[in-house]
Amino acid sequence: MGGIDVCKRVLEINPTAKIIFMTAYATVPYAVEAMQTGAFNYLSKPFELDELLMAIEFAAKSFRMEGKLRAQDYERQKQSQEQKLIGSSGVIRRVREQIKLSANSEANVLITGDTGVGKNVVARAIHDLQNKRETFLTINCSAVPENLMEAEYFGHERGVFTGADSRREGIFELADGGTLVLDEIAEIPIHLQSKLLTVLDDKRVRRIGSGRTISVDARIIATTNQNLEEAIQRGTFRRDLYYRLAVITIHIPRLREHPEDIPEIASYFVQCFCRMPVRISDDHLERMMHYPWPGNVRELRNIIERASLLLEGDVLRPADLLVQSNAHMAPVTSRQRASKAQEVVSLEEVKRSHIVSALRLFSGNKSQAARNLGISLSTLKRNLREMNIG
Question: Distance (Å, rounded) from C-alpha 107 to C-alpha 130?
């Protein structure tokens, strides 16, 4: 076959291939036909070796760039699937009303709730519904080392400290004109909270090592899994910063507080992870609705994803993956709950037992345990300290 036919066949097998024609038929119609077929470049013989090398380098750069764009597109699609507030219960309807209220305002928003309830989902919903700001950035305050926090938030000039080889914009500058989510705001140390308050009040930042301030306009949404009022009493969080952030407050309930939404949420995750029609049996849904879900919606998502990997047939069995090694975590019926109400243990004991079980499962590896519990490593370590677990 001829070069044009080879090009067609190759692109049928691999549409992302970069094909460079090298031909002695240096006619305009032939070149046009080659490019219309999908060729990336066209070289006429004779040509210099450097000319060929430049064509190959250009094709390689284009291939890598397209790969990055495909990866970004995949990530956006994945996020769009996950960034949905699912449920029809009264508490979820109230959260949706608060999202609409927040979207109609430019005021700062504080989103509270346990780890895994979907605080970032709500933050994203506010941003999308507002439809005025394009950029959406999130910074996990618990994931930034304390010695790098100030540079990460406010930026720095070149040479102000070891490793500062170039000037860098902080997260507030990058979020200018958009929405900035300060995830787990309570993790910011007290000595940096005053600087954060100044930025919120003045809407200006000063890079480390700079003598001038820069105007920024970012919509601030803060999230936390801690009780900030208690943190204020302990002296670990500034009261004035709390009032600056909590102009609008949205509290997201634990999953066990609205179990009637579990079938709908589970069904949604089934559609995300299963490529074929799959159902969850009524028995499994019943067991899931009576499970305490210490990891909340994030744990439910993890259970459904793991069950989809073990799927055989068209019936998903997620309840088999629930942690049931402890008697108090075994699913029970409504009648059993009523007759044994006096035996119900505290939520703290449930949480402690679940964390201990995860640590035992992963032989004490805190990083793996935190990842499978759906929480950050710093959150796990903090819980271990509070529970006096070594």
Answer: 12
Tokens of 131: 């439809």
Q: Are residues 93 and 234 in the same domain?
A: yes
Residue 336 domain-assigned? Answer: no
Helices (H), 104-148: 119-130
Among 58, 80, 102, where does a domain finish?
80
Please provide residue 327's backbone torsions phi and psi, each rounded to the nearest 5 degrees: -60, -35
Long-range contacts of 7-16 (CB under 8 A, 24+ apart): 7/34, 7/37, 7/38, 7/39, 8/37, 8/38, 11/37, 11/38, 16/63, 16/66, 16/67
Question: Cβ distance 239 to 186 under 8 Å?
Answer: no
Residue-wise pLDDT for 349-378, tens only, equals 777 778 887 777 777 788 878 877 777 788
Q: What residues form DSSP beta bridges with 280? A: 316
Question: How far apart are the C-alpha atoms of 312 and 316, rounded to whole Å?
Answer: 8
Per the domain annotation, does 340 fall within a domain?
A: no
How many CB atoms are located within 10 Å of the residue 121 CB?
19
User: Is residue 369 helix, strand or coil?
Assistant: helix
pTM of the complete model beyond 0.85? no
- Last residue of one domain, picked from the residues 80, 97, 122: 80
Do 42 and 7 lie in one domain? The reply is: yes
Tell me the Ramachandran region of residue 179: left when phi exceeds 0, alpha when psi lies from -120 to 50, beta otherwise: beta
pLDDT tens digits, residue range 209-231? Answer: 888 899 999 999 999 999 999 99
Which residue do the tokens 């074929």 mark? 276
- One domain, residues 284 and 357: no
